[in-house]
Amino acid sequence: MRLKGLGAFALLLVLGSKSVGVSHASVIYNSLGQTVSGEDNVATAANDPNFYGPLADSFTTGSGPDDYLFNEVTVKLRSDLAHIVPGGNIIITLMADAGGTTQPGAFIGVIGQLNDSQLTATLKDYTFNLDTSTPLRLHANTRYWVQIQKGAAGDTSAQWAYGTDNSGIGVANEFFANNTGSYANQDGPYMMAASTVVPEPSAIIMAGLGVLGLGAGRLARRRKATSV
């Protein structure tokens, strides 16, 4: 089948948009380079009298387009060997901000899960890559929270490291929260890194022109067929 006029042009635009690359990743929060000051237990009171869970760290998106895609999260964790929980696990979730109260609000989606058996006695960075086929979309200039809580299987021995340095990317002016309240990051944010993916403007424009071109080409063919 041969394509003519706008239809062929549209196909070139669509193919061109794919060759440009549709997105680039950007780190919007990173406190992993801090000196570790301690760890808080994700556990609940049923397992540990010094429980603090669920634990959460906030981050804020930039001023770009209103279609950020949440891409990757890395958190610094370890297992508290004094409170091993057989079959225990944790769930890492993305939460909305609770209406300007600087606390985690409504649940948005699951980032990942981790079994206690996968944790080590020493601190380690655990990275969760989100499935791009079902992305978690974020609004620009908006605060969100990464929250870690015990899973449905039972309690957990997981501990999330924290530090008192807020000089990392996006760390200043953010907050951390646990079951005692919400606090400014200078008091000791939990250690994590988060990145987003932003569609390239050129790819969006070219793809849009391609759709318009294909539509115009079909309309022209229909008109020609009607006039015959």
Question: Topology, please?
Answer:
Layout: H1 5-20, E1 23-30, E2 38-41, E3 55-60, E4 68-79, E5 89-97, E6 104-115, E7 124-129, E8 136-138, E9 143-150, E10 158-162, E11 175-178, E12 181-184, E13 192-199, H2 201-227
Antiparallel strand pairs: 1-13, 2-10, 3-9, 3-11, 4-7, 4-8, 4-10, 4-13, 5-6, 5-9, 11-12
Helix pairs in contact: 1-2
Shape estimate: globular
The radius of gyration computed from the alpha-carbon positions, rounded to a whole number of angstroms, is: 23 Å
The biggest sheet amounts to: 7 strands, antiparallel
Low-confidence segments: 6-22, 202-226
**Level-2 CATH architecture of the largest domain:** Sandwich
The fold-level CATH name of the largest domain is Jelly Rolls
Helical residue percent band: 10-25%
Cα-to-Cα separation, first versus last residue: 20 Å
